[in-house]
Amino acid sequence: MTTRTATITRKTAETDIELSISIDGSGVYSINTGVGFFDHMLTHVAKHGLFDLTVKAAGDLHIDAHHLVEDVGIVLGQALAQAVGDKRGMVRFGGGKCPLDEALVVAIMDFGGRAHLEYGLQLPTEKVGDFDTELALEFFRALTANAGISLHLIQEAGANSHHILESCFKSFGRALDEATRLDPRKTDVPSTKGVL
Question: Would you say residue 27 has pLDDT above 60?
Answer without folding.
Answer: yes
